[in-house]
């Protein structure tokens, strides 16, 4: 077979002396890697960030489809401390942040729910929560939270932007595969120890971060063990509003003219609710463990076991000084249709203190058998199980109140707002106990996977991959709450909280843990119940519609033909997937004169899809290649939309429900790129992509007789058989389109100095339903422009780099009320690092994250950009040592 020769450096041979110290290992072990079909080329003897770039470039170049890869710089030494922040360096990847670090990713403008995440080739889902309601608080989604794991546990990340038949279906945006080290990656005994001391600017706290890896092979057997542990104390502070609503009042102060009273009475002007000074602190312990075992039973059989364990524990506190009870407006200013300044008389100041304890625990077990069945046929059998549990047993709040004050807010000069009070908000004697809440959350996600993959070599230039898969996914969870209010006249004492953290202004809050015993001792009934207010919540305290289970059973078959002739590499195939869905939950039923009750319900549905794919790469010369991909893929509906739970209000004749019969999102994707490789490390690429998506989920309301709702008839009160109910539920809508351009490259000027840059531009059009009206706008989560820029210098003994990541503003959710959307303003984050090699095995490093202290701004309404949250997380720094042996 004659091919255009070019000097591509392949991971399979070069890693031994580059980033990972990989050894020859077992031939069968190498043959199972995604890139193993490429030819072995010359070795490269470099180490560090530059080697990581070279290896990632090799994987990108040698792939048939569209793929990006990030490779560790050294043993237990990933380029970034956070996996999401490493991924954002890839063209088309953007991230959202929590506690000052990356949490979830979006790929090419599609939200985190549309990207499927695998650990060692098996789908997994790990979730935690944000203490901030504005960031979703506790939400059950298909979005993977990358901040659960330390980056030191992984040695490679692959991002598959295009699909092929042998890849699992489920991610119309793409697939991210996180890979942990294996013993046959290394040549004999290898190990690494790293220790870092972190400092967070806002919390002014120092914390440790440690990691270790040890790996060895004993002939045909090998074992690799790694562990990582870190502690962190983060503080974010700023200003937030719950939302903007239509302002309507009939109470006016003496300075409001008669002409202005009409404008302030009809609800056409929007005003900010709460105007809150806010501060959030979070102490986290993060632990991760990996274990990999490999046994070359014979030349024809390799057995492997991979185990991953992760645990993230959080103790979070949130403090808010909010304003409620705007009884009289005395002055105001309007811009657009928004009240940007107002003064109120006789207002209430309500200060909230929140204490939250949560834990996410993740475990995964994978067993693989790689077998050579004949000279032409190989097989890989996989059995795996993963489970993630998020448990927040403590989520307590205590509110204080101070009444009868003159208060004003002012957004004329800054979206951060300026509040003015007529008293000292830090004076404990000005407050009384007002309210207390308890809450408990639980979310469980489980995957069981069985796979059989075969590869048949037809001849020297072609092969046939085929296989089958069974996957079972189960999600379970609930949210429970109790509250007591109007405590100010009951004489219950509170303990003032030790609030001395970073904030824009000091204010009095209650110490939640010290005040709660006094509240519980009062023996009060929880609001709207006949049960005592307690921290020990039961299923009777479930929030309506929050307790539900979703189970998906998927069977898939695929066949994929691979060919490499002359200067062309290609694969084309088809995947067939069928999914059975069972959604179970509790219906909350309210009848006049009767206590509310829950009734169980379970609904089954199914769907099947045929998913074709084509990937072609043409080497036009030694340096230039052309790549084209076309495929159909699916993403399954969100868990909340699939819930069988519904809220039934017989008095009002309303039913709000999920829709277990939703069909998946379907996308036909096309992309093409030219990639030019020159020199040892340099390349430039230009690509275009488009996605035509069908069956987007929208909310629909309709008037339906109860007998046609599909709900159990025995729930209906006697005599209501023919009654009409207003039903709201998610349905499959018309879809959306997405088109974009990606430009990327890296260039080394010589003497160790180089630059890396990429920019993505994307446009989209999607239908949204806001207050019953259909509106065409961008896809939620789409930033039209995002770019990354890195400059680095790397010499024999030292090196440095600085990186900038920009993300354009984007729409986050449908807002409703007097607003159309909720959005996020553009952000620019700057990170830097420097290292010095004290010896061949010992490296000293210093890293700085968010050096410019970038703030996160959220708003409501496209036209007026009404500020909802402004938070700053501060910069953080890490000083570390890494020792390899």
From TrEMBL:
It is a multi-pass membrane protein. This is TonB-dependent receptor. Transmembrane segments: none annotated. NCBIfam families: TonB-Xanth-Caul (TIGR01782). Belongs to the TonB-dependent receptor family. It is found in: Cell outer membrane. Residues 411-851 form the TonB-dependent receptor-like beta-barrel domain. Keywords: Cell outer membrane, Membrane, Receptor, Signal, TonB box, Transmembrane, Transmembrane beta strand, Transport.
